[in-house]
User: Which sequence fits this backbone?
C-alpha cells in the first residue's frame, strides 16, 4: 500500500444479509470509530446486493474493511465482488472464506492437515428432527452459519431429538451438521498473519454465565467470562496455539482468523471445532481482547488489518 495510512479512504462493510447482521453492525461501527480516531476517512456501508454500485458511487475507496459475518459476507461472495472491482480488502480471500464457512468440507481439510476435529457428519434436517441420528449427547448446527446461530445441544438421556430443525421456518439449509458433544472447556485462539507466517496470540478459556455457549453468551454483556491466558497444562496450551496456526495455514487464511476448540480435561482431548475467517470486533469479542493482552490496542489491530488488506487477483 503506497498511500500514507491517514490519507486512506476506507469503506467499512457492515450489516449484510445474514442472521449475524446485528453483530456485524456493532463490529463495523467499532472499527469505523477506531479508524476515525486515527484520522482516517471512513465510509460506513450497510452491505446489500447492490454493493458493487454503492462502492463505485463512493469514488472507489482505497481499502475495504470487511466486518460482515456469516453467509454472503464471509463465505467468499463479497470477496469475489471486491476482487472484480479490484479493491484491496481485509481478511481471507474467496477460497479460504468459502471453505471455512462450509463446516463439513473444512473439517476434511483440517483433518488431512493433522488437526483433530469432531466426528459426526451432515444429515437431512427432517431426519434429525425425527430421531436421534447419533447417540446423545450431541450438537446440531447449520453447516454454513457462525456465531452459534441455530445451534442446539441434545443432552445425554434426552428423549426427543431437535424438532426445531424440521420446522418450515428453518432457514439454514436442508442439511445440518451433527457432532458428538465434547465435554470440558471452551477455548479460542486468534491468529494474525498470512498463511506462510501466522502468529497465534494466546488461548482464552470461555465460560458461559448460564447454559450453553450460544449466540447470547457470545455477544450479550456478561454472557460469558473470559480467562486469558487460559489456565491449562503447558502442553495443551502450546498445542492449541500450534493447532490454530496449522488451521490458519491449511485453510489458506490471511489477516485475522480465530479457531474455536473444546478441551476435555478428563480425557486430555483437544478438538478444533471450526475456524472463523472474520472474527467479531464487538466490545465482547475474543480477537481484540487477545490482541490487547499481547500489547496491541484495538486501534492498533484495526490499523494492522487495514494495512494488511490486499486484492489477490
Assistant:
Amino acid at each position: 500500500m503506497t498511500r500514507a495510512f491517514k490519507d486512506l479512504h476506507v469503506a467499512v462493510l457492515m450489516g449484510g444479509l445474514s442472521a449475524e447482521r446485528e453483530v456485524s453492525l456493532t463490529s463495523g461501527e467499532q472499527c469505523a470509530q477506531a479508524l476515525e480516531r486515527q484520522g482516517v476517512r471512513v465510509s460506513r456501508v450497510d452491505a446489500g446486493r447492490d454493493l458493487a454500485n454503492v462502492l463505485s458511487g463512493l469514488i472507489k475507496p482505497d481499502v475495504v474493511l470487511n466486518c460482515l459475518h456469516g453467509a454472503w459476507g464471509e463465505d467468499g461472495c463479497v470477496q469475489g465482488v471486491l476482487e472484480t472491482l479490484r479493491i484491496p480488502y481485509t481478511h481471507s480471500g474467496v477460497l479460504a472464506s468459502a471453505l471455512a464457512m462450509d463446516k463439513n468440507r473444512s473439517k476434511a481439510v483440517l483433518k488431512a492437515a493433522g488437526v483433530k476435529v469432531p466426528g459426526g457428519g451432515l444429515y437431512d434436517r427432517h431426519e434429525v428432527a425425527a430421531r436421534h441420528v447419533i447417540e446423545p449427547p450431541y450438537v446440531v448446527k447449520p453447516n454454513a452459519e457462525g456465531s452459534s446461530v441455530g445451534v442446539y445441544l441434545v443432552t445425554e438421556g434426552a428423549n426427543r431429538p431437535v424438532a426445531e430443525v424440521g420446522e418450515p421456518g428453518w432457514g439454514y439449509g436442508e442439511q445440518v451438521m451433527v457432532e458428538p458433544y465434547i465435554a470440558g472447556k471452551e477455548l479460542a485462539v486468534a491468529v494474525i498473519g498470512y498463511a506462510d507466517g501466522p502468529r497465534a496470540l494466546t488461548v482464552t478459556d470461555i465460560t458461559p454465565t448460564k447454559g450453553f455457549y450460544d449466540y447470547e453468551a457470545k455477544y450479550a454483556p456478561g454472557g460469558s467470562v473470559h480467562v486469558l491466558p487460559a489456565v491449562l497444562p503447558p502442553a495443551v496450551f502450546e498445542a492449541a496455539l500450534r493447532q490454530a496456526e496449522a488451521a490458519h495455514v491449511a485453510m489458506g487464511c490471511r489477516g485475522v482468523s480465530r479457531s474455536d476448540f473444546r478441551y476435555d480435561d478428563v480425557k486430555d482431548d483437544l478438538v478444533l471445532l471450526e475456524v472463523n475467517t472474520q472474527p467479531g470486533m464487538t466490545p465482547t469479542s475474543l480477537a481484540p481482547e487477545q490482541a490487547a493482552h499481547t500489547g496491541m490496542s484495538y486501534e492498533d489491530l484495526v490499523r494492522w488489518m487495514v494495512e494488511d488488506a490486499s486484492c489477490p487477483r
